[in-house]
Amino acid sequence: MNIREDLEKREREILSPFAAFSAETKGRMHENDVCDLRLDYQRDRDRILHSKSFRRLKDKTQVFLTPEGDHYRTRLTHTLEVAQNARTIAKALRLNEELTEAIALGHDLGHTPFGHAGERALNRVCPLGFSHSEQSVRTVEVLEKGGQGLNLTYEVVDGIRNHQTSGHPATLEGKIVRFSDKIAYMHHDMDDAVRAGILTEDEIPAKISDVVGAGAGERLDFFIRDLISTSYGQNDILLSPPVAQAMQSLREFMFERVYQNPEAKSEEKRAEAMMETLYAYYFQHLDKIPPDIYKLLEKGDPAEQLVCDFLSAMTDRFAIAQYTEIYVPKSWIL
Question: What pLDDT is stored for residue 60 in this prediction?
Fold first, then answer.
């Protein structure tokens, strides 16, 4: 009995004609033996879930650097919320849940420590530039498994590369993740900001709350329902025009009150300076970079990229520990 073939047949019977069918994947970078138990996107999801870069997300900043409290989001909890929202939408639209989940779980694997502060710092000092979406692709294609990569399908890699607002995913499942990422971070970042006392629910403009509701749970539910009802039966993933405008207004409000708030971001300049200092140090001491990354120099990868590979893989705690080890004087013990 070949369970995979039975699952492929079931996809044909259940999924929308607009779905990305596992049997029609464009394939992987390297040929891989076909599994008789799991479909291709299932295998990708499992490979991401068991990767080192996925586990490191638990110690990477989402918005608030080293918050004092157990309930603030990390990059890992953000990823899990994106995956949950995306699966809900994909299931309702009869699209491929496993492809959707694989993209969602992998979309931030290359993110820096200290959130977007770390990303800005590397983009500023590295002459090649730095983007966490491209670094996530490099992580799954090159860096994971000691330089072998995870050998994911084209569709999953495409969704990871194009998950940001400016991206144009090739599949509807990738488009779902692109929206789910925005919905998730605006939902939980506002929730965390209220918890931190940065803002209150009463301060959210009426032009937003009158459209999408008041309260974090109500807004989250509204965005997801609107995305489903607007996209149902369509070969596209869309919000209705008034809700799309409300989302844009909410995003602008969040940038003004949270993402650029001096109180919420008081430590980011220090984090950026730390990342820039570590970049300069490791560029001058390439031999300090782990061997599985350093060996890519022999394959022709530029030194600047290898330094970014090492720094972007760090957790917040590891980056601080490395900086302390290199630059903070130790007590002299007789």
Answer: 92
